[in-house]
Design a protein that fits this description.
With 244 residues, this protein is an alpha+beta fold. The chain has three helices and eleven strands, in the order H-E-E-H-E-E-E-E-E-E-H-E-E-E. 20% of the residues are buried.
Length: 244
């Protein structure tokens, strides 16, 4: 593979201010493109002789709400279960409410949802990661790349299904993993971990129906096995000590 730093410098020289950011991370070049520049920049990345990114390997959606904050980080132990995961009032919580980790995300930053594209140049043996943030957190929209790389079709549908990112210009933007009547987008940070409805098969109707979620609240306590008398078989007595 060609030197990532050389590719990074070539990209910055070629695109200039059209790149909102550019860096080398984890051995690969990572650039950010504004939504209004995405189609033009991606077209040049495919066609320009120094780059020739002829393959789109993947498209991934990302929800950056509460990014970089760890809700499970703690410095104390508990003997009543994972209290920090079930609403412990003494632990900072990132706005989590309820038993199942539903988030109340109210801050609008214009940088919550992003589409991330992984590109490959077979000719130059280059790899590139392109990130584009949707400007509107309530209705995230970015241009579809299906007109540039037809392989974007199904990955964009997946990002739409799981994150609710709308890819404008997509020829068939509909759900691909969840059911037809599914409500919401399950990979969003504010989606309830137990879901909104519970599917079951109705024998009388001969089809799957939906109803209220009936999961019982429970505290998850790790099983700790200790090799002492507390875990001996029923009826067994602990060995007596020689000194009494």
């Amino acid at each position: 593979m060609a030197d990532p730093q050389t590719l990074n410098e070539a990209l910055q020289s070629h695109f200039g201010d059209r790149l909102a950011a550019a860096k080398v991370a984890f051995g690969e070049v990572d650039v950010e493109v504004r939504p209004e520049d995405l189609t033009a920049v991606m077209t040049e990345l495919r066609d320009a002789a120094p780059f020739r990114f002829d393959q789109l390997l993947d498209v991934a959606g990302v929800d950056y709400a509460a990014y970089g904050q760890g809700e499970w980080i703690t410095e104390r132990a508990t003997d009543t279960g994972f209290s920090r995961g079930v609403g412990d009032p003494t632990t900072p919580r990132l706005g989590l409410t309820g038993l199942y980790g539903v988030q109340e995300i109210t801050e609008k930053t214009g940088r919550r949802f992003a589409a991330v594209y992984l590109l490959l140049s077979v000719e130059h043996n280059h790899r590139l990661r392109v990130r584009c943030f949707a400007a509107d957190d309530d209705l995230p929209v970015v241009d579809s790349m299906t007109g540039i790389w037809p392989s974007a079709n199904w990955p964009e549908r997946e990002a739409f299904d799981l994150f609710g990112i709308v890819f404008e210009g997509h020829p068939d933007l509909r759900r691909i993993l969840t059911d037809y009547g599914f409500v919401g987008h399950p990979f969003r940070k504010d989606f309830p971990l137990i879901g909104n409805v519970e599917p079951r098969y109705d024998v009388e109707k001969g089809r799957v129906v939906y109803g209220p979620v009936e999961i019982e609240p429970r505290v998850l306590v790790p099983r700790v096995i200790r090799d002492d008398h507390r875990y001996k078989g029923r009826g067994e007595q602990p060995e007596e000590r020689a000194d009494g």
